[in-house]
Amino acid sequence: MSDEFESKVRDALANPQNQGELPDADAVGTVGSPDCGDMLRMWLKFTEKDGKKVIDRASFQAFGCQTAIAVASMATELLKGKTPEEARHLSAQDLTGSLGTLPPMKIHCGQLVEGALRDALDASPTPSPAPSHAPTLAESIHRPASGKIRIVPLD
Ligand code: FES
């Protein structure tokens, strides 16, 4: 990895944005990487702007490497104001923001973020009555396999 990329990741990790669950989220997506075992969950909250549904806020929780956390931090900022359709067309590379191009060995880290975003966009709205809070990633992982969590392996 280049020193410049490592330095950008370090900067992003020094002040990660939008970490933690969004208690009033409209959609949640979770993805796991069979390659490295890392997992990432993304929450989306929508609002209406100029008659269009747009992403108001996005947040994430990760059991992942530093690159995945840095990309998720960038991506959750980048998603604000995007329509679901615009967000759906963002690639892992688009989601890296100012981190720039990911080194080949870190491309799957960006794909983890992209996968969680797509899973959230595909998810149906939070069922009613809404739970008091969406389970944290740790709670989901430690919960018995009851079908409550959908893990989408990356190709
Ligand atoms: Fe697994 Fe980065 S090494 S997401």
Structure notes:
With 155 residues, the protein is of the alpha+beta class. The chain has a single domain, classed as Alpha-Beta Complex (Sufe protein. Chain: A). Helices cover 36% and strands 20% of the residues. The chain has six helices and four strands; from the N terminus they run αβββαααααβ. Strands 3-2-1-4 form a four-stranded mixed beta sheet. Strand 1 and strand 2 form a beta hairpin. Helix 1 packs across helix 2 and helix 2 packs across helix 5. About 3% of the residues have low confidence. FE2/S2 (inorganic) cluster binds next to helix 2 and helix 5.
Distance between the termini: 23 Å
Q: Overall mean pLDDT score?
A: 87
CATH topology: Sufe protein. Chain: A
Shape: globular
Helix content: 25-40%
- What CATH architecture do you see? Alpha-Beta Complex
